[in-house]
Amino acid sequence: MSTVSVIFVCVVAAILAAILKQYNATFSLVTVIAAAIIIIAIMASKAANLFDNVFSVVDDIGETAELLKLLIKAVCISVLAEISSNICKDSGNSSLAVCVDVTAKIILFALAFSLVEYLITIIQDLFN
Predict the structure, then answer these.
(1) CA torsion, ordered 76, 78, 84, 88, to nearest 10 deg
(2) Which of 39, 47, 55, 93 has the most CB atoms at less than 10 Å from its CB?
């Protein structure tokens, strides 16, 4: 049902944005942003159930669960940055879209650095 809901919201928002763009580009952009928020809310509710199930399975693993949490954070950051960047591009703000992309890459690098630290610790334990 959620897929049908997302498709319906997208189609309605696209039609409204196209109609409103002829009269006022600001209302068109607000429509697109509202649709994106609704879609993110729908997907977040579905993803929360999925993440709860995944975390309940891997909680017994220990340190690996933290790595999985980092992976999920990275995926969420990537998705939100992509959506934000595309909205900025659609509104004609390419420079803001680039800023969103660069910021997301820096945040992802910070997350990846903690993974690299973990790998270095494992390698040091192997050689000791």
Answers:
(1) 180
(2) 39
User: Exposed, middle or buried: residue 16 (CB in 10 Å: 0-12, 13-18, 19+)?
Assistant: middle
- Specify whether the CB–CB gap between 78 and 108 falls below 8 A: yes
pLDDT one-digit tens code per residue, 20-62: 888 888 888 888 888 888 888 888 887 777 777 777 776 666 6
CA distance 45 to 128: 45
- Encode 68-92: b = buried (16+ Cβ within 10 Å), e = exposed: beeeeebeebeeebebbbebbeebe
Asked if 52 contacts 58 with a C-beta cutoff of 8 angstroms, the reply is no
Alpha-carbon torsion, ordered 26, 31, 33, 35, to 10 deg: -170
